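Researcher: Structure for this, please.
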Amino acid sequence: MVVADEARDGWEAHAKACQKPFDVVVLDISLPGKSGLEVLKQLKQDKPELPVLILSMHPEEQYALRTFRAGASGYLTKLKASDELIAAIRKVLQGGRYVSHSLAEKLVFDLDSSISKPLHEKLSDREYQVFLLIISGKKTKEIAERMSLSAKTIGTYRMRILAKMQLKNNVELTHYAIKNHLVD
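Model: Predicted structure, token format:
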């Protein structure tokens, strides 16, 4: 295996992946500028046959299902990367999907479960990203800078999140996140 290139941000990652003939792209969710989830969606439109393995610091519960819905071929947390990265790359190169054992168990359990979907799964990808930043204690201005959006836009996302989740404020958002194991 040869690491052929790397990118500083989401814009550069998308451009390089479209310009060069890579066999697989290993992509992080938390990229400056354009998020890895946005890059993934665009790559799947531009090069649908290109396998994309997501390698992220975020736990599987936070992003794995969203990335698979967006077209990812696999999802691996950085905590497990040292043990599983080579196997994950090989699996997606062969046309398969890579999921960890713990995620596979969760998916099977969810299939068996008759419990309705959690409220946070009603959020769009962008709303979910803002939600995670809010519950991590970031201020509106910090979130806006990190996402390259205006503070007013972040405020609008926050209001949509509260409405969809039927909550009143950031304290209730954080309580919900703790209760649903969305924070470390």
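Researcher: Any notable elements?
Model: The first strand starts at residue 25 and ends at 27. The first helix runs from residue 10 to 19.
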